[in-house]
User: Fold this.
Amino acid sequence: MEICYNLFVFINLGCDLMNISIVETKTIPTIKIEYNNKNIILHSKYDPIREVNAWCKNAIAGLSKQQEVIIIGLGAGYHIKQLSELLPEKKITVVEFNDDYYRWFKTSPFYEKVYRCINVIVKQYNSLSSTEQQELFTGISSSNLLIHKSGLDLIPSKCKKVKEILDDMQFKKHSIKNQIGNMKANFTYNSQLQDEGIGKLKNMYGNKPMILISAGPSLDKQMTLLKRIHKEGKVVLGAVGTALKPLIKNNITPDFFSIIDPNPGTYEQLKNLDLPITTLYYLSTAYHETITLHTGPRYIMWQEGYEDAEKKAAQLGDSLIQTGGSVATALLDLMVYLGAGPLALVGQDLAFTNGLSHANYAHAQRDVNETLATLTTLDYHRTEQVPTAKNLTIYRKWFEDYALNHGNLELYNCTEGGAYINHWEHIRLKEFYEKVIYIG
Assistant:
């Protein structure tokens, strides 16, 4: 049975057309919307109750107890009402980006149950001032920003940038959710190692030039020059774990390296390697058995955004590291913390250069069918598009935001391949080296 509440509206000078219907299911009604030439069902068309139960269960599992909750998307209100009942002492703010759906919802039979939730406030995003919009998400961790699918589906085209940010955030949250068991176990084991944190190491390198070495396909072309740089010892070399074996194969031993992944796949990065004087900086949730393989100095890093790590850092008076989701993004924040001067990226392709995922001798190297890549990005030389992936796109945006928010830093992309990274200066590695040696 379909009860129609038809609403034809135009948003943004007639770009987005919407038609709303209430549809019966075997339990409670759901909402069907024709929008942007798509049919969108806001809750399950079979059993909204079951869907809402699962959504709320997942939402509560990762919540930070110290913060309020923000929900993106009104949907039919079922998820809001249930979460309100499950968390009666917590303030819940619901944000709806679609003005026309917001207005329709307030006149619909679904509004009453949300209105009666005394701990819930509903806000229409576009009616807020720019300051209020910014403050809305300030100080809230991703774990307490709950994105209902309906909230993303109905974001209008004029809010495209916000939708991209929320979509990226949702992608990261799903990735963490799939690894949370490993993360918790590793955190317990790694904490028991009682390795020292990085608190006392701030600015230890005193503005020395650094190169952050990743294991993208373009690393291969830089090996000859990296050998010379390593031999002359005038630049600090920091590497991601995946780049270790390609570097060692070329007789290059970095000053330090980093591992953050909670999964067993990192074991191959250190298997059969003996690096007694090379320092390992590892995330508190990194795969424990990989960490214990290392024979040299070790420091544990407590990461921002992981509640147990934040508590531990506060307890020990230690510092936090921004992770950004990848080992290279975390390593960048670490290198800046350690006192990097001019800093260059090498092997940071963030794309499938020449149809490859990684450099030669990297255990994770694989061929990538470029025709199957659904995403592309502007290439390093800004001449064409190169194939990439969702996670690589998120990392690239993180690098861009980091540079934008740290305008005092000298940041260079010397990958000479892969993706173009906004707000970084793109120069050849040879030029970077000559520049910092001349300054030195």
In short: The longest strand covers residues 16-23. Residues 182-438 form one domain. Residues 208 and 297 are 21 Å apart (CA to CA). The two ends are 77 Å apart (CA to CA).
